[in-house]
Amino acid sequence: MSETPRQAPSSLQQFREFEYTRADFDRLRALSNKHSGILVPDDKFDMFYSRLTKRIRALRLNSFKEYCRLLEDESTQEFTNFINSITTNLTAFFREKHHFDYLQKTVIPELIEKNQTSRQIRAWSAGCSTGEEAYSIAMTLLENLPTGWTAKILATDIDTQVLDFAANGVYELSRVNSIPEERLKRWFKKGTGSQINKVKVKPELRQMITFKQLNLMQDWPIKTPFDFIFCRNVFIYFDRETKKTLAAKYSNLLTIGSCLFIGHSESLQQVTDRFELIGNTIYRKIG
């Protein structure tokens, strides 16, 4: 097998605004892994260039090597911009609908019976991206909880830009076209004037959710347990040891019988014995 080249082919390099080598890419993805735990595959070489060129221009640097040196200075504030630039945020309202069906038909009735004293439900959307998942959870809870009950949702992400977007709660009409008209009218306000092609989530939803930045590789300032956790399309970015650590920490924040929802391409098999699979990438805590 031939060895991976250490720099981009000259035929491509000559069209680049800044010199960018495989060594630069390796330094950058090593920094990403050290900071966030995310494993960056070889096929992200060009993506890193296209996304980070904007940062190099904004900082008026001359090369990717200079940018690497800047990031390696632990006092720099650029790391947030770096992580924001390279993270991919793909989400949608009620994505993986079977999870929300199970939440409605099974989890919420169980919690209504279990939490009669507090009449409160706490949930976590970990890796919330631009907020569609958190707002989908909020809609499902409000549509199915009895009068007098309250629900609180913590929504976290490492990317501060998507958190700002999520907290604002304004979406293009194309982002909500899969939501039935009745639900859309109940929970969203249509824009007017310059906002004619947009919608904004209503205050009842927004007030339920606390958006916070959280790096899953660092300490979690969370003590109170949750009734269920959504952590979808997050495990795929980590190695097995990191997955084991995350699964244990999630388990510590759930009571026996509570559910952890993960992404359709993810699995906790051979990762943890504290959860059992109950179907469709839904796990229940058993220990």
From TrEMBL:
Molecular function as annotated in GO: protein-glutamate O-methyltransferase activity
Domain CheR-type methyltransferase, first and last residues per copy: 13-287
Transmembrane segments: none
Keywords of this entry: Methyltransferase, S-adenosyl-L-methionine, Transferase
Enzyme Commission numbers on file: 2.1.1.80
GO biological process assignments: methylation
Pfam families from the UniProt entry: CheR, CheR_N
Protein biosynthesis recorded as keyword: no
EC class of the enzyme, as a word: transferase
Reactions it catalyzes: L-glutamyl-[protein] + S-adenosyl-L-methionine = [protein]-L-glutamate 5-O-methyl ester + S-adenosyl-L-homocysteine
InterPro entries, alphabetized: Bact_Chemotaxis_MeTrfase (IPR050903), Chemotaxis_MeTrfase_CheR (IPR026024), CheR_C (IPR022642), CheR_MeTrfase (IPR000780), CheR_N (IPR022641), CheR_N_sf (IPR036804), SAM-dependent_MTases_sf (IPR029063)
SUPFAM superfamilies linked to this entry: Chemotaxis receptor methyltransferase CheR, N-terminal domain, S-adenosyl-L-methionine-dependent methyltransferases
Annotated residues for binding of S-adenosyl-L-methionine: 89, 91, 95, 133, 157, 215-216, 232-233
Purpose: Methylation of the membrane-bound methyl-accepting chemotaxis proteins (MCP) to form gamma-glutamyl methyl ester residues in MCP.
Protein name listed in UniProt: Chemotaxis protein methyltransferase
Taxonomic source organism: Methylotuvimicrobium alcaliphilum (strain DSM 19304 / NCIMB 14124 / VKM B-2133 / 20Z) (Methylomicrobium alcaliphilum)
Highest classification ranks of the organism: Bacteria, Pseudomonadati, Pseudomonadota, Gammaproteobacteria, Methylococcales
